[in-house]
Amino acid sequence: MNMKASGKLQEILSKGEFAVTAECGPPRGANSEIVRKKGELLKGYVDAVNVTDNQTAIVRMSSIAACTHLLQMGLEPVMQMVTRDRNRIALQSDIMGAYSLGITNILCLSGDHQSFGSQPDALNVFDIDSMNLIRTVQTMREQGKDMSGFELKGPPAMFIGAAANPFADPFEYRVIRLAKKIDAGADFIQTQCIYNIDRFKEWIKMAREEGLTEKVHILGGVTPLKSAGMAKFMNNKVAGMDVPESLIKRIAGVPKEEAVKEGLKICQETIAQLREIKGVHGIHIMAIEWEEIVGEIVEEAGLLPRP
Amino acid sequence: MIVGEQKPISEIKEIIAPYKKILILGCGTCVKTCFAGGEDEVAVLASALRLACKKDGKEIEIEEFTVERQCEDEFIREGAPAISRNEGVLSLACGAGVQALARRFVKIPILPGVNTTFIGVLEKQGVFTEECSGCGDCMLAIFGGICPFTRCAKKLLNGPCGGSQNGKCEVNPETDCAWQLIIERLKILGQMDNLRAYVPPKNWQTGLSGGPRKLVREDHII
Amino acid sequence: MTENFKPKITLFHCINAFDEAAELSLTDMDNCEMQTVKMACSSMVKDVFLLKAFEAGADGVVVLVCPESQCRYVEGNIRAKKRVAWVQNLLDEIGLDRRRLALGNMAAGDKAAAAQIINDVLKNLAELGPNPAV
């Protein structure tokens, strides 16, 4: 039985076309209008929209709900799901619930540690890890069973995504981990924001040598920088982020009012390079609270119209 | 060993506030080693509390005593006379010691003077680190002798996460990334293949999730 | 400050740093009671002894130790410093004020330095008044 989900994202990737996804963070509140507004900004420019799950451990509207709002607007969501907040019972239940609502893509993550968020006093769950979550979703789809082995009535058949960070340590383990995620069942990978393109190339070369790029669709993550301050912050304060000194200098070297433009230029250069790299099947644009820029980035990159 | 830390004086003052005659009861095993509740700490706390109460104009009589181990009835017994002649007992043992006392002396309030923190090792003089969470299903064999449930902030079985940088954990830059340590150790042992294997979800039933645990050794029971 | 307050000071000292027979020129020598406790090395000063000195009625406690890196037992004076810092925190917690306790490094026989350290505590005591836990 191979009941793969059939969403637009999967279709594009399996046809070998270059995919474009973007990120949409749900609001800290119950106002669905905010989600719709963000959806409006992305509609027509991307193939699917990742909806974060209480990102940076800050309490927000649930990913499932925000995904549903986007679905109703005709957008295809990628539901992000972290193992930080729910045990295996809740996770499986939410996967089934989400699929029943029409959500066909999932990105399986461990999640940012709660100590970085708005409620560092919370209990973390981490009953299973992201690897286990990938396998769980795969088992549901391929074998129609939940983790207990129970045969599900109408098993969810999600298109399964996972994250990879080519910039975290230990570097030599990063490709082993990618291989494990693929073995566990990942169909596509969205990477951490790429600024150090040399290191990314090194990583994907290793992945290619192990034949991993044949087994999975890798979407390179990009986030436009707005200022030298942001570049420095990302480099120093965000764990697992690698912004080379030369980039920081470059953006610091232009007049302040030109910084945004320079950041977008850097972003375009990165996208152009990513499109040339064998094994990269798309880009994932994470314009944090700056969804209005996504359309411009995609258009400028010559990636329109979307199929 | 069990590692603990004495509660702040202000909190202890509140805990003992209703009593005029208390016994500070130390434990000579784990908490002695981590400077939280041995004979020396009992003496210091008693002295500090006497000063604090006197300053506040509160009358209190404080007796000091330390037994070898508060989690065993056999040793607790030695403290019985002192315990019985006081209105309350401030135990400087771990939570197990406090409860062992409470079980035996039901009519006397047994109060905690220590926050029990973890099962750990003495990394070096004065430094203690958490190493074990007592999950009841030890998997150290495949992890090179380093426990990821305890020492990875996200309890990752198939780690490390994307936040590991320069061998440190993103949650606390003072903490070594457990997965970095695991990888280094497995490299030395020539067991890097362990990392390629998928580690299935952990069965938490053997841990606290299955409810309070009990160990019965039939061969030692008459 | 309290009228007619004659502070009691307990002086713990390392015999290699300070000689209890030494005459000190204190600002207010007549107006202070001093009790000395000599130790073979300042590392012998334990937290409980410092507290017990306060329990016994001291208004202030001074620990005189050798200069750092000149301890005969290598790190005795460093240990003393750390313990004093620990007890100073306890004194704050109790509400006695950390300024009642001081540690000073002094070269062997440097009476002026010893007097300076004690004078500083006397100054603190003039402000703080008698030990409130007596």
Give the secondary structure arrangement, pairings included.
The complex is a heterotrimer of chains A (307), B (222) and C (134).
Chain A: H1 8-14, E1 19-24, H2 32-42, E2 48-51, H3 63-72, E3 77-82, H4 88-100, E4 105-109, H5 130-143, E5 159-164, H6 171-184, E6 188-193, H7 197-209, E7 217-222, H8 228-237, H9 245-252, H10 259-276, E8 280-285, H11 294-300
Parallel strand pairs in A: 1-2, 1-8, 2-3, 3-4, 4-5, 5-6, 6-7, 7-8
Helix pairs in contact in A: 5-6, 6-7, 8-9, 9-10
Chain B: E1 2-6, H1 9-16, E2 21-27, H2 30-33, H3 39-55, E3 61-67, H4 73-76, H5 80-84, E4 88-91, H6 95-104, E5 110-112, E6 114-124, E7 127-132, H7 148-151, H8 178-189, H9 193-196
Parallel strand pairs in B: 2-3, 2-4, 4-5
Antiparallel strand pairs in B: 1-6, 6-7
Chain C: E1 8-14, E2 33-39, H1 47-55, E3 60-65, H2 76-94, E4 101-105, H3 111-128
Parallel strand pairs in C: 1-2, 1-3, 3-4
Characterization of the model:
The complex is a heterotrimer of chains A (about 300), B (about 220) and C (about 130). Chain A is of the alpha/beta class. Chain A has a single domain (about 10-225, about 280-300), classed as TIM Barrel (Alpha-Beta Barrel). Chain A has 11 helices and 8 strands. In chain A, helix 6 crosses helix 7 (about 195-210), helix 8 runs antiparallel to helix 9 (about 245-250) and helix 9 packs antiparallel against helix 10. The longest helix of chain A has 18 residues, at about 260-275. Chain A is globular. By secondary structure, chain B is of the alpha/beta class. Chain B folds into 2 domains: about 1-120, Rossmann fold; about 135-210, no CATH class. In chain B, helix 6 links the parallel strand 4 and strand 5 (about 110). Helix content of chain C is about 35%, strand content about 20%. Chain C has helices spanning about 45-55, 75-95, 110-130; strands at about 10-15, 35-40, 60-65, 100-105. Chain C has a 4-stranded parallel β-sheet with strand order 2-1-3-4, with helices on both faces. In chain C, strand 3 (about 60-65), helix 2 (about 75-95) and strand 4 (about 100-105) form a beta-alpha-beta unit. Chain C is globular, with a radius of gyration of 14 Å. The interface between A and B is medium-sized, with 35 and 29 residues.
